[in-house]
Amino acid sequence: MSASPTTPPSSRPARARGDSRESPSPPGVHHLRTADDAVAVRTAMGTAARVVVVGAGFIGSEVASAARARGQDVTVVEAADLPLVRSVGPGVGEVCVRLHQANGARVVLGRGVTGFEETAGRVTGVRLTDGTVVPADLVVLGLGVTPATAWLRSSAVPLHPHDGGVVCDATLATGVPGVYAAGDVAHVSNPLFEESLRLEHWTSAAEHGAAAARHALDPASARPLVTVPYFWSDWYGHRLQFVGTPRADEVVVTDSAVSGYTALYRRGDRMVGALTIDRPRDIMKLRRSIVARRPWADIAAEAA
Ligand SMILES: Cc1cc2nc3c(=O)[nH]c(=O)nc-3n(C[C@H](O)[C@H](O)[C@H](O)COP(=O)(O)OP(=O)(O)OC[C@H]3O[C@@H](n4cnc5c(N)ncnc54)[C@H](O)[C@@H]3O)c2cc1C
Predict the structure, then answer these.
(1) Candidates 53, 200, 230, 232: which one to mutate for ligand 1, based on the most atoms within 8 Å of Cβ?
(2) Could you tell me the pLDDT band of residue 1, with boundaries at 50, 70 and 90?
(3) Is the CB–ligand 1 distance for residue 207 below 6 Å?
(4) Given CB 3.0 to 4.6 Å as the disulfide criterion, which of 127, 145, 150, 298 pairs with 14?
(5) Atom nearest to 38 CA in ligand 1
(6) Can you tell me the distance from the alpha carbon of 132 to that of 75, in angstroms, rounded to the nearest whole number?
(7) 174: domain range?
(8) pTM (two decimals)
Protein backbone atom coordinates (compact mmCIF):
# COMPACT_ATOMS: atom_id res chain seq x y z
CA MET A 1 0.00 0.00 0.00
CA SER A 2 1.29 3.51 -0.67
CA ALA A 3 1.47 6.43 1.74
CA SER A 4 -1.44 6.80 4.11
CA PRO A 5 -2.74 9.66 6.24
CA THR A 6 -2.41 7.43 9.31
CA THR A 7 0.74 6.10 10.95
CA PRO A 8 1.16 2.39 10.22
CA PRO A 9 2.36 0.04 12.94
CA SER A 10 5.49 -2.01 12.35
CA SER A 11 3.44 -5.16 11.71
CA ARG A 12 2.51 -7.21 8.64
CA PRO A 13 -0.58 -6.09 6.67
CA ALA A 14 -2.36 -9.36 7.43
CA ARG A 15 -2.13 -11.19 10.75
CA ALA A 16 -2.46 -14.95 11.33
CA ARG A 17 -5.63 -15.89 13.22
CA GLY A 18 -4.74 -17.42 16.61
CA ASP A 19 -1.37 -15.64 16.52
CA SER A 20 0.21 -16.55 19.87
CA ARG A 21 1.78 -13.09 19.93
CA GLU A 22 -1.80 -11.87 20.53
CA SER A 23 -3.02 -14.58 22.93
CA PRO A 24 -0.36 -16.64 24.74
CA SER A 25 -0.33 -20.41 24.22
CA PRO A 26 2.11 -22.98 25.66
CA PRO A 27 5.44 -23.81 24.01
CA GLY A 28 4.89 -26.36 21.26
CA VAL A 29 2.01 -24.36 19.74
CA HIS A 30 3.04 -22.56 16.56
CA HIS A 31 1.42 -20.41 13.95
CA LEU A 32 2.86 -20.17 10.46
CA ARG A 33 3.17 -16.82 8.79
CA THR A 34 6.78 -15.63 8.62
CA ALA A 35 10.05 -17.28 7.58
CA ASP A 36 11.00 -17.42 11.29
CA ASP A 37 7.72 -19.26 12.01
CA ALA A 38 8.56 -21.76 9.25
CA VAL A 39 12.02 -22.41 10.71
CA ALA A 40 10.52 -22.86 14.19
CA VAL A 41 7.93 -25.37 12.89
CA ARG A 42 10.57 -27.30 10.95
CA THR A 43 12.82 -27.48 14.03
CA ALA A 44 9.92 -28.62 16.22
CA MET A 45 9.00 -31.32 13.68
CA GLY A 46 12.43 -32.83 14.19
CA THR A 47 11.46 -34.05 17.67
CA ALA A 48 7.64 -34.22 17.62
CA ALA A 49 5.87 -37.58 17.40
CA ARG A 50 2.24 -36.41 17.53
CA VAL A 51 1.32 -33.41 15.42
CA VAL A 52 -2.04 -31.68 15.57
CA VAL A 53 -2.82 -29.24 12.79
CA VAL A 54 -5.66 -26.84 13.55
CA GLY A 55 -7.35 -25.68 10.34
CA ALA A 56 -7.68 -27.84 7.24
CA GLY A 57 -7.02 -25.02 4.79
CA PHE A 58 -4.13 -25.01 2.34
CA ILE A 59 -1.42 -24.10 4.83
CA GLY A 60 -2.62 -26.57 7.49
CA SER A 61 -2.93 -29.29 4.88
CA GLU A 62 0.58 -28.69 3.56
CA VAL A 63 1.90 -28.94 7.13
CA ALA A 64 -0.03 -32.19 7.66
CA SER A 65 1.41 -33.57 4.44
CA ALA A 66 4.97 -32.61 5.49
CA ALA A 67 4.50 -34.21 8.92
CA ARG A 68 3.15 -37.44 7.40
CA ALA A 69 6.15 -37.52 5.04
CA ARG A 70 8.30 -37.57 8.20
CA GLY A 71 6.26 -40.48 9.55
CA GLN A 72 4.60 -38.49 12.31
CA ASP A 73 1.18 -39.22 13.77
CA VAL A 74 -1.06 -36.43 12.39
CA THR A 75 -4.53 -35.21 13.33
CA VAL A 76 -6.12 -32.34 11.40
CA VAL A 77 -8.84 -30.48 13.34
CA GLU A 78 -11.32 -28.36 11.36
CA ALA A 79 -14.18 -26.35 12.87
CA ALA A 80 -16.29 -26.44 9.71
CA ASP A 81 -18.13 -29.56 8.54
CA LEU A 82 -16.02 -29.50 5.38
CA PRO A 83 -12.71 -27.76 4.76
CA LEU A 84 -11.85 -25.07 2.20
CA VAL A 85 -15.39 -23.89 1.57
CA ARG A 86 -14.32 -20.23 1.25
CA SER A 87 -11.42 -20.99 -1.12
CA VAL A 88 -12.93 -23.63 -3.41
CA GLY A 89 -16.61 -23.83 -2.47
CA PRO A 90 -18.56 -26.66 -0.85
CA GLY A 91 -18.15 -30.13 -2.31
CA VAL A 92 -14.48 -30.07 -3.23
CA GLY A 93 -13.68 -30.23 0.50
CA GLU A 94 -14.67 -33.90 0.45
CA VAL A 95 -11.88 -34.90 -1.89
CA CYS A 96 -9.44 -32.94 0.28
CA VAL A 97 -10.53 -34.97 3.32
CA ARG A 98 -10.06 -38.16 1.30
CA LEU A 99 -6.52 -37.07 0.40
CA HIS A 100 -5.61 -36.68 4.09
CA GLN A 101 -7.18 -39.97 5.10
CA ALA A 102 -5.63 -41.92 2.23
CA ASN A 103 -2.25 -40.72 3.47
CA GLY A 104 -2.76 -41.71 7.09
CA ALA A 105 -3.80 -38.38 8.65
CA ARG A 106 -6.88 -38.38 10.91
CA VAL A 107 -9.38 -35.62 10.15
CA VAL A 108 -11.72 -34.26 12.86
CA LEU A 109 -14.47 -32.12 11.32
CA GLY A 110 -17.08 -29.86 12.90
CA ARG A 111 -15.12 -29.34 16.11
CA GLY A 112 -13.15 -26.29 17.15
CA VAL A 113 -10.38 -25.83 19.68
CA THR A 114 -11.16 -24.47 23.15
CA GLY A 115 -7.66 -24.66 24.64
CA PHE A 116 -4.49 -26.63 25.23
CA GLU A 117 -3.36 -29.18 27.82
CA GLU A 118 0.17 -28.70 29.10
CA THR A 119 2.61 -30.50 31.34
CA ALA A 120 5.89 -29.05 32.62
CA GLY A 121 5.36 -25.96 30.50
CA ARG A 122 4.88 -27.77 27.17
CA VAL A 123 1.79 -28.58 25.18
CA THR A 124 0.55 -32.17 25.59
CA GLY A 125 -2.89 -31.98 24.00
CA VAL A 126 -5.54 -29.96 22.22
CA ARG A 127 -8.98 -29.58 23.87
CA LEU A 128 -11.89 -29.64 21.45
CA THR A 129 -15.38 -28.15 21.70
CA ASP A 130 -16.90 -31.61 22.42
CA GLY A 131 -14.62 -32.00 25.47
CA THR A 132 -12.24 -34.52 23.90
CA VAL A 133 -8.50 -34.00 24.05
CA VAL A 134 -6.23 -34.90 21.13
CA PRO A 135 -2.71 -35.72 22.40
CA ALA A 136 -0.03 -33.55 20.82
CA ASP A 137 3.55 -32.47 21.28
CA LEU A 138 3.46 -30.10 18.31
CA VAL A 139 0.44 -27.99 17.35
CA VAL A 140 0.41 -25.87 14.21
CA LEU A 141 -2.33 -23.30 13.78
CA GLY A 142 -3.28 -22.73 10.14
CA LEU A 143 -6.30 -20.54 10.65
CA GLY A 144 -5.86 -18.03 7.84
CA VAL A 145 -5.25 -14.33 8.22
CA THR A 146 -7.31 -11.26 8.90
CA PRO A 147 -6.28 -7.91 7.42
CA ALA A 148 -4.38 -5.89 10.06
CA THR A 149 -5.98 -2.59 9.12
CA ALA A 150 -7.18 -1.24 12.48
CA TRP A 151 -4.62 1.57 12.09
CA LEU A 152 -6.52 2.75 8.97
CA ARG A 153 -9.89 3.09 10.70
CA SER A 154 -9.42 6.76 11.43
CA SER A 155 -8.45 7.49 7.81
CA ALA A 156 -10.58 7.97 4.68
CA VAL A 157 -9.34 4.70 3.20
CA PRO A 158 -12.46 2.49 2.74
CA LEU A 159 -12.42 -0.76 4.74
CA HIS A 160 -14.59 -3.79 4.05
CA PRO A 161 -17.40 -4.12 6.66
CA HIS A 162 -16.86 -7.86 7.15
CA ASP A 163 -13.13 -8.42 7.29
CA GLY A 164 -11.58 -4.95 7.38
CA GLY A 165 -9.73 -5.43 4.05
CA VAL A 166 -9.04 -2.34 1.96
CA VAL A 167 -11.71 -1.79 -0.69
CA CYS A 168 -10.46 -0.66 -4.07
CA ASP A 169 -11.64 -0.49 -7.67
CA ALA A 170 -10.34 -2.57 -10.58
CA THR A 171 -7.30 -0.27 -10.91
CA LEU A 172 -6.46 -0.87 -7.21
CA ALA A 173 -7.29 2.76 -6.38
CA THR A 174 -8.95 3.26 -2.98
CA GLY A 175 -10.58 6.57 -3.86
CA VAL A 176 -8.14 8.44 -1.63
CA PRO A 177 -5.76 10.25 -4.01
CA GLY A 178 -2.40 8.47 -4.19
CA VAL A 179 -3.50 5.47 -2.09
CA TYR A 180 -3.62 2.03 -3.73
CA ALA A 181 -4.05 -1.43 -2.22
CA ALA A 182 -2.38 -4.70 -3.21
CA GLY A 183 -2.08 -8.29 -2.07
CA ASP A 184 -3.78 -10.12 0.79
CA VAL A 185 -5.29 -6.96 2.22
CA ALA A 186 -7.02 -5.73 -0.96
CA HIS A 187 -10.66 -6.28 -1.96
CA VAL A 188 -10.35 -5.74 -5.71
CA SER A 189 -13.24 -5.32 -8.07
CA ASN A 190 -12.72 -7.83 -10.93
CA PRO A 191 -14.61 -6.99 -14.15
CA LEU A 192 -14.22 -10.54 -15.50
CA PHE A 193 -16.29 -11.99 -12.63
CA GLU A 194 -18.33 -8.86 -11.81
CA GLU A 195 -17.42 -9.20 -8.15
CA SER A 196 -14.95 -7.93 -5.61
CA LEU A 197 -12.36 -10.49 -4.52
CA ARG A 198 -9.90 -10.53 -1.61
CA LEU A 199 -7.39 -13.28 -2.31
CA GLU A 200 -4.47 -14.65 -0.35
CA HIS A 201 -2.33 -15.87 -3.27
CA TRP A 202 1.19 -15.13 -4.40
CA THR A 203 0.16 -14.61 -8.01
CA SER A 204 -2.47 -11.98 -7.10
CA ALA A 205 -0.06 -10.20 -4.72
CA ALA A 206 2.61 -10.06 -7.45
CA GLU A 207 0.18 -8.81 -10.13
CA HIS A 208 -1.33 -6.25 -7.76
CA GLY A 209 2.06 -4.97 -6.59
CA ALA A 210 3.28 -4.33 -10.13
CA ALA A 211 0.00 -2.74 -11.26
CA ALA A 212 -0.40 -0.56 -8.15
CA ALA A 213 3.11 0.80 -8.64
CA ARG A 214 2.45 1.57 -12.32
CA HIS A 215 -0.88 3.25 -11.54
CA ALA A 216 0.58 5.27 -8.68
CA LEU A 217 3.39 6.55 -10.91
CA ASP A 218 1.12 7.32 -13.87
CA PRO A 219 -2.55 7.47 -12.82
CA ALA A 220 -3.66 8.61 -16.31
CA SER A 221 -2.55 5.27 -17.78
CA ALA A 222 -4.34 3.16 -15.15
CA ARG A 223 -6.39 0.30 -16.64
CA PRO A 224 -8.66 -2.19 -14.85
CA LEU A 225 -6.91 -5.43 -13.92
CA VAL A 226 -8.71 -8.22 -15.77
CA THR A 227 -7.02 -11.30 -14.36
CA VAL A 228 -8.06 -14.84 -13.51
CA PRO A 229 -6.94 -15.66 -9.96
CA TYR A 230 -4.72 -18.75 -9.73
CA PHE A 231 -3.18 -20.75 -6.91
CA TRP A 232 -1.77 -24.16 -6.29
CA SER A 233 -0.95 -26.31 -3.29
CA ASP A 234 1.11 -29.50 -3.02
CA TRP A 235 -0.09 -32.24 -0.66
CA TYR A 236 1.12 -35.82 -0.35
CA GLY A 237 2.80 -35.67 -3.76
CA HIS A 238 -0.35 -34.31 -5.47
CA ARG A 239 -0.74 -30.85 -7.00
CA LEU A 240 -4.05 -29.07 -6.44
CA GLN A 241 -4.63 -26.08 -8.74
CA PHE A 242 -7.49 -23.63 -8.82
CA VAL A 243 -8.32 -20.88 -11.30
CA GLY A 244 -11.10 -18.28 -11.15
CA THR A 245 -13.65 -17.81 -8.41
CA PRO A 246 -15.52 -20.40 -6.33
CA ARG A 247 -18.72 -18.30 -6.22
CA ALA A 248 -20.79 -20.43 -8.57
CA ASP A 249 -24.36 -21.62 -9.17
CA GLU A 250 -23.17 -25.20 -9.68
CA VAL A 251 -19.98 -27.24 -9.35
CA VAL A 252 -19.73 -30.17 -11.76
CA VAL A 253 -17.18 -32.88 -11.01
CA THR A 254 -16.09 -34.41 -14.31
CA ASP A 255 -13.45 -36.76 -12.83
CA SER A 256 -13.71 -37.82 -9.20
CA ALA A 257 -10.50 -39.90 -8.89
CA VAL A 258 -8.10 -38.21 -6.46
CA SER A 259 -5.34 -37.98 -9.08
CA GLY A 260 -7.10 -36.46 -12.07
CA TYR A 261 -9.91 -34.84 -10.06
CA THR A 262 -11.56 -32.07 -12.04
CA ALA A 263 -14.33 -29.74 -10.86
CA LEU A 264 -15.81 -27.03 -13.06
CA TYR A 265 -17.64 -24.03 -11.55
CA ARG A 266 -20.61 -22.65 -13.50
CA ARG A 267 -22.24 -19.26 -12.97
CA GLY A 268 -25.09 -18.50 -15.35
CA ASP A 269 -24.00 -19.66 -18.81
CA ARG A 270 -20.25 -19.31 -18.17
CA MET A 271 -17.51 -21.21 -16.42
CA VAL A 272 -16.04 -19.02 -13.67
CA GLY A 273 -13.67 -21.45 -11.95
CA ALA A 274 -11.98 -24.83 -12.13
CA LEU A 275 -10.09 -27.05 -9.72
CA THR A 276 -7.87 -29.94 -10.75
CA ILE A 277 -5.56 -32.39 -9.03
CA ASP A 278 -2.46 -33.49 -11.00
CA ARG A 279 -3.70 -31.96 -14.27
CA PRO A 280 -1.38 -28.99 -14.85
CA ARG A 281 -2.02 -28.80 -18.60
CA ASP A 282 -5.79 -28.92 -18.21
CA ILE A 283 -5.87 -26.15 -15.64
CA MET A 284 -4.09 -23.71 -17.95
CA LYS A 285 -6.49 -24.59 -20.77
CA LEU A 286 -9.42 -24.03 -18.41
CA ARG A 287 -7.95 -20.70 -17.37
CA ARG A 288 -7.83 -19.60 -21.02
CA SER A 289 -11.48 -20.66 -21.42
CA ILE A 290 -12.45 -18.43 -18.48
CA VAL A 291 -10.59 -15.44 -19.96
CA ALA A 292 -12.26 -16.05 -23.35
CA ARG A 293 -15.70 -16.28 -21.61
CA ARG A 294 -16.40 -19.49 -23.52
CA PRO A 295 -20.02 -20.67 -23.13
CA TRP A 296 -20.58 -23.28 -20.43
CA ALA A 297 -22.43 -25.54 -22.89
CA ASP A 298 -19.27 -25.90 -25.05
CA ILE A 299 -17.02 -26.62 -22.08
CA ALA A 300 -19.47 -29.10 -20.53
CA ALA A 301 -19.82 -30.89 -23.87
CA GLU A 302 -16.03 -31.18 -24.18
CA ALA A 303 -15.69 -32.46 -20.61
CA ALA A 304 -18.40 -35.06 -21.21
C1 LIG B 1 2.95 -20.47 5.21
C2 LIG B 1 2.34 -19.84 4.01
C3 LIG B 1 2.28 -20.56 2.83
C4 LIG B 1 1.71 -20.02 1.69
N5 LIG B 1 1.65 -20.74 0.54
C6 LIG B 1 1.13 -20.21 -0.57
C7 LIG B 1 1.08 -20.95 -1.79
O8 LIG B 1 1.53 -22.10 -1.85
N9 LIG B 1 0.55 -20.36 -2.89
C10 LIG B 1 0.04 -19.10 -2.85
O11 LIG B 1 -0.44 -18.60 -3.87
N12 LIG B 1 0.05 -18.37 -1.70
C13 LIG B 1 0.57 -18.89 -0.57
N14 LIG B 1 0.60 -18.17 0.59
C15 LIG B 1 0.00 -16.82 0.60
C16 LIG B 1 0.98 -15.81 0.09
O17 LIG B 1 2.20 -15.91 0.79
C18 LIG B 1 0.37 -14.42 0.30
O19 LIG B 1 -0.84 -14.35 -0.42
C20 LIG B 1 1.30 -13.31 -0.18
O21 LIG B 1 2.54 -13.39 0.47
C22 LIG B 1 0.65 -11.96 0.13
O23 LIG B 1 1.51 -10.95 -0.22
P24 LIG B 1 1.35 -9.51 0.43
O25 LIG B 1 2.39 -8.66 -0.21
O26 LIG B 1 -0.05 -9.08 0.37
O27 LIG B 1 1.65 -9.66 2.00
P28 LIG B 1 2.96 -10.20 2.73
O29 LIG B 1 3.63 -11.30 1.99
O30 LIG B 1 2.53 -10.40 4.13
O31 LIG B 1 4.01 -8.97 2.62
C32 LIG B 1 3.76 -7.75 3.22
C33 LIG B 1 5.09 -7.03 3.43
O34 LIG B 1 4.80 -5.73 3.93
C35 LIG B 1 5.71 -5.42 4.98
N36 LIG B 1 5.05 -4.44 5.84
C37 LIG B 1 4.11 -4.65 6.78
N38 LIG B 1 3.72 -3.51 7.34
C39 LIG B 1 4.41 -2.54 6.76
C40 LIG B 1 4.46 -1.12 6.91
N41 LIG B 1 3.68 -0.50 7.77
N42 LIG B 1 5.29 -0.44 6.12
C43 LIG B 1 6.08 -1.08 5.21
N44 LIG B 1 6.07 -2.41 5.03
C45 LIG B 1 5.26 -3.12 5.79
C46 LIG B 1 5.92 -6.76 5.66
O47 LIG B 1 7.11 -6.78 6.40
C48 LIG B 1 5.98 -7.71 4.47
O49 LIG B 1 7.28 -7.82 3.94
C50 LIG B 1 1.18 -18.70 1.73
C51 LIG B 1 1.24 -17.97 2.93
C52 LIG B 1 1.81 -18.53 4.05
C53 LIG B 1 1.85 -17.75 5.33
Answers:
(1) 200
(2) very low
(3) no
(4) 145
(5) 1
(6) 13
(7) 149-221
(8) 0.86
